[in-house]
Amino acid sequence: MPFKAWAAGEEVLATDFNTYVGNQVVATFLDAAQRSSQLPAPDIGQLSTLDSRQGALFIYRASGWAEVGPYVQSGNRVFTTDAGGVGTVQFPAAFATPPACVMVSDMSSNLSEVFAIAVAYSTVTTTEFSFAIRKVSDGTKWASQLARVAWVAIGIRA
User: What is the pTM of this model?
Assistant: First the structure.
């Protein structure tokens, strides 16, 4: 986008308005459909917001509109691990790419069997992540056992 600095008292002419002013503000639209119809050829780097997604800021990239900033999802999950001590959590909504950060915390109410979650995750995709649970006491698998975890994933909204 071109940029122009005006001197104090200088008028903004109609010919300059879209190029220098209109394209350099954060435009607000009702929803993505209205944005597409009223802004059919955005400039790379142009910003917008949507009333339908309050608080979200979008930037136009060569591949289309993308949300600025991290997308955070979290939850609690109760499940039975498989024979390898692995548990899987599905994200409520898909990420654009596998999240850069996934954190898991033990919420087990069984204090006699304290366990830790392995540092390495089996898989992290745009829709789910899997992880292995090991006992702190001896490192053995928490196989075919009931587990309860809290989790947080940080990535980019799809």
Answer: 0.58
